[in-house]
Amino acid sequence: MNAYQRGPVTLRGQHVPTTTTDQRLLDNRGPADWLHTDPWRVMRIQAEFVEGFGAMAEVGPAVSVFGSARTKPDHPMYALGEQVGAELVEAGYAVITGGGPGSMEAVNKGADRAGGTSVGLGIELPFEQGLNSYVHIGVNFRYFFIRKTMFVKYAEGFIVLPGGFGTFDELFEALTLVQTHKVTSFPIVLIGTTYWQGLRDWLRDVAVEEGTISAADVDLLHLTDDPQEAVRLIRTANEERRAHRPE
Ligand SMILES: C/C(=C\CNc1ncnc2c1ncn2[C@@H]1O[C@H](COP(=O)(O)O)[C@@H](O)[C@H]1O)CO
């Protein structure tokens, strides 16, 4: 059976295309289905990484803050989010959020009002609302996994306000990366003791007891109600890390 060679790929029989790559490139009347194939998707993924890395390259020391998209501006947690944004800026950090509404908006607002750098890494969603108006550097991602890379790659710590599945996902991504030493052991601070205590108790009483995590893993989570303390924890850990970094 004759073989058709497309770069490293060999195609035979019914898999041999009836048109050539050049023909499809140059023919603007042809079918556009190939645009939606996985190999083409890889190009979009690559382009999204390039855009993201480019936008974030000069942000400087930053902290990623996660939290509910549903927090209303009149909720006490919104005010706390603003305070978190402002405290981070006071401590010399840029602030990175998901760029959406709720707690993300509160944190971006706090950073903006404090005169700092406010970054929003948005995500294309079916019910998209766009980036909040307090974002100075905004990138809208098509792919969750690329956006998650940016949250981690450019942060020296993580602050997590109360939230739902999106927040849990981001928290556990950070925790897993730190636990497995895939990233530097940056601090992870949960704000809202009433909200998070149950989770930490469950980790200690069930997960540690069952042996699915170790007791030391639970200690990766710091709990507080005080934004100042949250930022202090991150700053102190980073100062210590820098002091002990080999020359
Ligand atoms: C639900 C609504 C809007 C959603 N818009 C979002 N924009 C940007 N980032 C988002 C959005 N929703 C979730 N995220 C990410 O997950 C975390 C919040 O998720 P949760 O389930 O609300 O806890 C947050 O940190 C974002 O990174 C309209 O109300």
TrEMBL record:
Region of interest (Disordered), ranges: 1-27
Enzyme class: hydrolase
Superkingdom of source: Bacteria
InterPro entries according to UniProt: LOG, LOG_fam, LOG_family_nucleotidases
Record's catalysed reaction(s): N(6)-(dimethylallyl)adenosine 5'-phosphate + H2O = N(6)-dimethylallyladenine + D-ribose 5-phosphate; 9-ribosyl-trans-zeatin 5'-phosphate + H2O = trans-zeatin + D-ribose 5-phosphate
UniProt keyword list: Cytokinin biosynthesis, Hydrolase
Record-listed E.C. numbers: 3.2.2.n1
Phosphoprotein listed as a keyword: no
Gene3D superfamilies according to UniProt: 3.40.50.450
Protein family per UniProt: Belongs to the LOG family.
Protein name: Cytokinin riboside 5'-monophosphate phosphoribohydrolase
Species, as recorded: Mobilicoccus caccae
